[in-house]
User: Fold Phosphate regulon sensor protein PhoR from Aliidiomarina maris.
Amino acid sequence: HHAMDIEVRIMPYADNQLLLIARDVTQLAKLERMRKDFVANVSHELKTPLTVMQGYLEMLDEPEMLPARQVSKAIHEMSAQTTRMQNMVSQLLELSRIESSGPETFTDEVNLAAIIRSCGKDAELLNQQKQHQINFALDDSLTVYGNADKLRAVVSNLLTNAIKYTPEGGQIDISWLRRHRSAEFKVCDNGPGIDPIHQSRLTERFYRIEADRNSATGGTGLGLSIVKHALEAHRSRLNLDSEVGRGSCFSFILPPELVEQTQAANSREPA
Ligand code: ADP
Assistant:
């Protein structure tokens, strides 16, 4: 049962009477709370790296007192914090750009298979130390109408997450295939999996699971909210099928009206 926010006004009516007007402002109040939370979150997220940087700067104020090893550690750490803030700001900008663009009519033809391959290459950099086995099943004949930048953001965030959160030697399966008249993208990993209590909240801005929040190599918690909004623009949504200890499958389906329906693809016969 949810609480309701009510705005009440009382005004004089006829003789000896008062008029009471009650308005349900639950939705408005909720939006206002979300806005305030958002500002608080951004401030907090930026404050942490700045505080860390401040500490190192103070330490470096008298570098002749420090062993060289400490100096280089401080510089390395400050550089990591700067990168973190840069990522956060660019993700915030991307999120606000994606959120503020209204409903779209798409005319661009997008070959998502090519985008997936190129994101896969970028993700390989991340993968170098991890030695995951990454498998692709991509239909190159599948053309969709959409916004290539937004779809790239979706794929890139989902692939990066799969690699980031799956421990060394994991397996990652990526597919982009026709499903009747629609098209489905799917990335499955055999990483830690996600508890049901977190699953529905993952696309909230800044939401991270506690264990990841505490890890030093933290992300921003903005990736999946970018994914959510970019998919909404394509009349699609993010699906998650995950079990703790077994892994996670993130997927989305693009509706038939955004998928090019070719005769050849429908009636292709085995050679
Ligand atoms: P970020 O990766 O920057 O923390 P995201 O919004 O992309 O933010 O993801 C939110 C959270 O969801 C992550 O912090 C992580 O806890 C969890 N998560 C995302 N993808 C996976 C995955 N493939 N396996 C396990 N946990 C995941």
Remarks:
- Strands lie at 6-12, 18-24, 109-110, 133-138, 144-145, 171-179, 182-189, 239-243, 247-254.
- The chain is about 45% helix and 20% strand.
- The longest strand covers residues 171-179.
